[in-house]
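ENCODED BACKBONE
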Amino acid sequence: MLSPLKIMACLFMLVLGDIFVVPDTAMATYADPMDNRVDSLLSLMTLEEKVGQMTNIGLMAVCKGDFWEGRDTIEIDSAKLRRLLLDHHVGSVQNMGKYPPAPAEWRQLIGAVQQVALQESRLRIPVLYGIDGVHGANYTAGSVLFPQQIATAATWDPAFAETAARVTAYEIRAAGIPWNYSPVLDVCKQPLWGRIFETFGEDTYLTQQMGAAMVRGMQGDDVADPHHVAACLKHFAGYGMAYNGKDRSPVYLPERWLRQYIFPPFQAAIDAGALTVMINSGSVNGIPSHIDYHLITEVLKGEMNFQGFTISDWSDIMNLVEAHQVAADEREAVKLSVLAGLDMCMEPYDESFAVHLVQLVKDGEVPMSRIDDAVRRILKVKFQLGLFENPLPPPSLYPAVGSAASVAESYQAALACLTLLKNEAAVLPLPKKANVLVTGAAANSLNYLNGGWSRTWSGRETAYNDEEKQTIFEAIQAKLGSEQVSFVPGTTYTEEVDIAAAVTAAQAADYLVVCLGEQPATEKPSDIDDLSMPQAQLDLVRALAQTGKPIILVLVEGRPRLIREIEPLANGILLAYVPGQEGGRAIAEVLFGDTNPSGKLPYTYPRYSGSIWAYDHLRSDERDQNFGYDGFNPQYEFGFGLSYTTFAYADLRFLPDTVVTGEEVLEVRVTVTNTGKRAGQEVVQLYTSDLVASISPAVKQLRRFAKIALAPGASQEVRFSLAAKDLAFVNQHNQWVTEPGAFTVTIGPLKKTFVWQP
C-alpha cells in the first residue's frame, strides 16, 4: 500500500505533467534490485554524460551576473544553465548566492534546474543539489538555527544531535535540496583551528556517538522519504589536526594515530548508512588528500567498505596546482584526483573538470572502469534518494518549517550545552530582583550567538538576522524588566568603544554580566595567530573589576580563547560556545536559575597558548620542570562542568570482579547521588587507562558516558559494559590489538583496576 506521502508525491508529479517525466529507459528495470537499475542506466550513457555526473558546479555559475556579484535577487540564466546541463551534462549543483532565499524561492530556483535536466536532457537524470546545512537549514530564510556542533557536543547527549539533524533535513528538503554537506567528523585536538566550532571536539568516542546520531537523524530509516536527505561526512581525513592550527594546512600524523583517533568517527557514520564523503582540503604527511589513493581507495572504499561516493571540497582540484604544487596544471590535477578515487569534483565556476576528464579518458590516461565506478556510485545515491521518482516533493509536505516545536528543540539543546566553569561562593544563579549591567562584544549580537554558516557563509551580515530572536541583553531585559537592566557595549571584538561608560554604569548595578566572545568566521577568515582573548575585551573586565561588583563572564566563542589573566577577577563563568538563535534566551534562563546548567567541556580548555594538549595525552607529556608529573595544568579539563547542585559517586564495582577473560564482557556499576538541594543532570563519564602497553598509552580514554537526571537526594545506579575491543589500540603494525594486562577504570573520583587476559 502506498503511504500518504507517496500518494501526495504521485499527485504532484501528475500535476507537473511533462516537466518531471522520467524516461522509460531509466524506469525499465524499476522492479529490479537497485544495482540493476543503476547498471541499466549506466549502459545507456556516453562518456560525456558519465563525466557530467561527476561534476558539481556552484549555483551562481548558472545565474545571471558574475559569480561573486553581490545581488538581492537570484535569477537563473537559461543559456548558462542549458550549456552546463545539456552540453556538458553536469549532474550536480550546490550552495547559494549572496543571501538566504525563502523555501519558495529555493524551490523555484531548483525547479528550474530540474526542469532542464528532466525535460530536455537525453536521459533525463535528475540533478543532485547539495548545500551546507551545518546547524540547521542555515541558508534558508525562516529556518531554525540550532547550536553549532561544538555546543551540541557539550550536551553530551546524542539525542540532541539526532534531533537537530532531523529538523535540518526536513527544512532543507522543504527547499527542494536532498543533500547536506554535514556532519563534520574531524576530531580536533588543536583549538587554534578556527573550525573547531563545527566539530564535536577533541575526543574520538564522543565524536563517534554524536556523528552517528546525526546521520540517523538526517537520513532516517529511508533516505528516499521526502523528509530526509543524504548526509556528507566531512572532511576525510585529519582535516582538524593541522599542525599550525590554520585552515587547509598540512597534517603530520603517523598512520597508527590516524587509525586510532581520526578514522573511527567516519567508520561509525558509514556503518550508520552515510551516503557521501567529502575529502580533506589539506594534506596528510605531505600527500594532498585529494590525490591520496591509499586514503581514498584502499582505506575509505576498501577497508571501511564505503559504498557511496566521494566529493572534493570547494575548488580543491585547482588547489592541487596552486596551493599544493603537485600538479603542473588543472588537467594533471584532474587525472591524479580521479585515479586516487575521487568520484565527484566540486568545481564551482565552470565545466573545466568535465572537459579535462573526457579528454583524459579518450587519451587513455584514465580508464573507463574508474569512470564507471564513480558514476555508478553517484547514480546509486540518486536512486536511493528517490530523485528519479520524486525530484522535487510538493511544498504541502512541509507545513512545519520554522515551527514552534522545532524552535523549542533548538532552545532545549541550547540550554543543555551551557557549561558552568566557575561559581565562586555560589554567586549563580543571580537573584531576579537584582540590578544588572550587561556589557561586552557579545552582549547584544545575534551573530555572535549563531556564528559562521548562519544565513551567509561568514555569519557576520546583520541584515539577514531573525530579529524576533533575543540577544543576551534582550533576553535578560525581557526576564527582569527594562528598569533593572542596563546595557553598554564596552568594546567591539577587538576595539574599545566605551569602557569608561561601562564602568560608570556599573556603579548602579548589583551584578555585571560581561559577555566576551569571538566574531563569526569560518575557513580561512577564521585563522588567528593567538588564542588569547582580544586585548580590548580583557581590558573591559579589568576595568570593571575595579568597581568591586560581582562579575559574571559569559563566553560566546567557537574555540576556547585564553582567559587566564581575567579568570581570577570573575566570580562566575558560563561558557555558551556558539549556541544558536535561542542562545540568548537559554543563557538568561541559566543565569537566573530557571534551568540548572548541565553542559560539560568537549575539549580541554588551555591555560597558555604554548601548552595545548588534549586530555588523552601520554604520561611523558606531563613531566614538569622538577622532573615530576605535574605538567598538565589546563584552565579546565575535558569533561568538566559544574552544576547548581552537587553529585556524589560511590560503590564502583565490576562483574566479574577483577579478571576478565577473552570475549567476556565486563559490567561496570556505579551509584550517583544528587547531594544538593535542587534537581540536576550529571554526565557520568567512564574512562579506562592501560597501565602497560607495547606503545605508550594515553593517560586515559573516554569509553562510555551517560547523562542522567536526579531529584534532590535521589540516587541511581548507572551500568556500563566493556568488551575486549573497547580496550584495543593500534600497534606499530597499524593493527588493532588488545593486549593482556591491567586496566584502571575511572568514574568521577573513583578508580578500580581489573585484568584482561585472552
Observations:
- Residues 1-31 have pLDDT under 50 and may be disordered.
- Residues 645-757 form a domain with the Immunoglobulin-like fold (CATH 2.60.40.10).
- The first helix runs from residue 4 to 16.
